[in-house]
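Methods: example folding runs. The two proteins below were folded one after another, and each record is reproduced exactly as written to the output file, sequence line first and structure-token line second.
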Amino acid sequence: MFDRILVAVDGSPKSEKTIAVALDLARRYGSAVTVVHVREHERYEGSDVDLGPPIPAEDLVNDALAEFSQAGIDARGEIRRVSSGSTPEQIVEVAGQSRADLIIMGSRGMTEWKSLLLGGVATKVVHQAECPILLVR
């Protein structure tokens, strides 16, 4: 049913819960997993300003991959660095490229206060993705 699962992580508490859910489903269905982290940045006075969490992107993805590896689940990671506001499109793009049958992500992430005004990453992914989405609270 779910041969390939995409898990979006952003370092938020909701994002941490997605790993446990993805581990459970990947075990049940024998799924391969892609862990994606989209790191937003802005150009400001000639340099890039990282808008992501204080955790380095590589650490965030590698920590998640270690959990899947310990469980014997085939997993790979991907990091995308994009301009502010492009996160939903990037998640959907990675899902398409990895031929994901399911996207698992937190219902609210690091930009929770922004999501109240702008519609939120999860809402945009739900509207753009071609596969089912599991939002974790």
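Second run, written to the same file directly after the first:
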Amino acid sequence: MVRKLLDSHSNDLERSQQENLFHTRCKVFDKICSLVVDSESYSNGCSARVVLKLNLSIIPHPKLYKLQWINEDGGLIMSSQVNIPITKGSYQETILCHSIPMDARHLLLGYPWLSVHKAIHDRKSNKINFRHVGKKITLCPLTPTKSK
């Protein structure tokens, strides 16, 4: 009976994870930041507010382009980038991101990050698996209640 109850709780959690974006937290320097991984996004982004608060060095973008999904006013010209040093458990990396005026989360890793790492997003468990510097890395999401 106990096993049956535990199994049903596990299945409910897996179903709830299938319906969520991958959301977790990481560290940038000594600050905790929210991080979303979205395979539908064709750019890596960092909130302009994080760039300002952490006094990160802005790098001019070598080739300006318009990012359409950011706002309803016809897009935003991407003109600046920033290197973000993130840490999540044993995983540490500096990632080049666009500086974007977004309020929803601090960091957004999209298709460019996923493809470089050949990362696999297991949608059932909502975990992301990849290899980095020869080590197998598994990023686990926050549960829906912890991500609020």
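Comment on the second run: The chain has a mean pLDDT of 82.
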